[in-house]
Specification:
By secondary structure, the protein is α/β, with parallel strands linked by helices. The chain has 13 helices and eight strands. Strands 1-2-4-3-5-6-7-8 form an eight-stranded mixed sheet, with helices on both faces. The termini are far apart.
Length: 300
């Protein structure tokens, strides 16, 4: 176990050397956040999913495309990429929303279109509910909004336990995750194949023990987080574009995106035929079109 921990520590250090920060840092309530800012125009904020980081949006091409018309701000959420995740807080979507509100204030962003993918969609919704003057429109991609049974949550509970979770995250989890990586990608991208452009995503950064523990913690929060958030959706009174892949193998879109569309009055739903969970990768132009539509609905 000690040998595995030492090897994983060295691999994590190498991953960070090989993938240095590409953006800037901002200190918010004692949390060091890494972000990338590109382009000019109306602010557009992007939140990535669980286990991911800025490079997911970079490799998809969405940042480059959006930066042609928007001021794009993409954060590594706490514990992912180069952002830190202090252990003195439970990083629920609401806690992260409060953190990003302060961060955006520091960046002088007072009104923004906000896109969240997967777990990031929960953060986007929480930001719109808790800090409504900030969010003028939402784009929610492949989100999980209502509590349902999730097999992946059950496997995440143990690594998320304080103490024991640290031991597992620093020893066993990175090894098992390397073995399971191809199968995980097939599930995330299926039924489509993993695009060549995703090779730009730094796998070894995602397999660092600290990031794996953050990912486990977020997986463990999914069901209770969705149960709490579901009580607030009726408060959403801004243009909301919901987009999901018809063949998402991770999330049942009928129980999630379709149901959310029924509850949010000012929402539109786009179901992408043949699309999986990673629609910003496999259907980036459709996601970009959803952003443009959300932006257009806020122009008066």
């Amino acid at each position: 176990m000690a040998g595995a921990a030492l090897i994983n520590r060295q691999l994590a250090k190498k991953a960070q050397r090989d993938n240095p920060p590409q953006g800037q840092f901002i200190e918010v309530n004692d949390v060091r956040l890494h972000y990338v800012e590109r382009g000019n125009g109306r602010p557009l904020v992007l939140f990535h999913g669980n286990g991911s980081m800025i490079q997911d949006f970079q490799s998809s091409g969405l940042i480059d495309r959006a930066a042609e018309n928007y001021r794009v701000i993409v954060f590594d959420r706490p514990g992912f990429g180069h952002s830190l995740r202090p252990r003195n807080a439970v990083w629920t979507p609401e806690a992260q929303a409060d953190l990003f509100k302060v961060a955006l204030d520091q960046l002088r962003v007072h009104r923004a279109i906000v896109l969240g993918h997967s777990w990031g969609a929960s953060v986007a919704v929480a930001l719109a509910i808790r800090h409504s003057p900030l969010v003028e429109a939402l784009v929610l991609a492949s989100g999980y909004y209502f509590p349902t049974a999730r097999s992946d949550v059950a496997t995440a509970i143990v690594p998320a336990i304080p103490g024991l979770g640290d031991i597992i995250s620093y020893t066993v989890s990175p090894i098992l995750s390397r073995l399971m990586w191809p199968a995980m990608l097939r599930k995330l991208f299926g039924p489509r194949s993993v695009p060549e452009k995703f090779a730009g995503f730094p796998r070894e950064m995602a397999l660092r023990p600290a990031q794996m523990r953050a990912s486990a913690a977020e997986a463990a929060l999914m069901i209770p987080g969705a149960a709490a958030a579901a009580k607030t959706y009726s408060e959403l009174e801004i243009p909301t574009i919901i987009i999901a892949g018809e063949e998402d193998r991770l999330i049942d879109i009928k129980k999630q995106s379709v149901r959310l569309h029924e509850e949010v009055k000012q929402s539109k739903l786009y179901r992408l035929a043949g699309g999986g969970h990673m629609i910003h990768q496999s259907a980036m132009p459709d996601v970009m079109a959803a952003i443009d539509e959300a932006a257009a609905q806020t122009l008066h």
